[in-house]
Design brief:
With 100 residues, the chain is mainly alpha-helical. 52% of the residues lie in helices and 10% in strands. The chain has a domain of 68 residues: Arc Repressor Mutant, subunit A, CATH 1.10.10.10. Strand 2 and strand 3 form a beta hairpin. The longest helix has 17 residues.
Length: 100
């Protein structure tokens, strides 16, 4: 039998961020993208994540244009920051402004 890995998130992600992004902002794609990037960050133990639009699209089931739009929204909300480097796998920093 295959083992199932557990991935823990801050309660804030589900209790506050989910209803805020999905309900208030009406951007469920932004929540999915944040969840995938935060999951990669947790697994690697680093807040800096290298992931292309295509990689994120495959992991979320969204189109690349939806991922781009979601990332723009996350940047505006201060939840993701991009490194100023142009490459196939841009580096994105997952921000947790609720943790000071």
């Amino acid at each position: 039998m295959a083992s199932v890995a557990t991935l823990a998130f801050d309660a804030y992600v589900v209790d506050v961020l989910l209803p805020d992004l999905v309900g208030h902002d009406r951007k469920p794609s932004a929540f999915l993208v944040y969840l995938v990037l935060a999951g990669i960050a947790r697994r690697t133990g680093r807040d800096r994540v290298s992931a292309s639009l295509e990689t994120i699209a495959v992991k979320t089931g969204l189109s690349k244009s939806s991922v781009q739009s979601a990332l723009r929204h996350l940047r505006r909300r201060g939840l993701v920051a991009d490194e100023p480097v142009s490459s196939a796998d841009p580096v994105r920093t997952i921000l947790r402004p609720w943790i000071r």
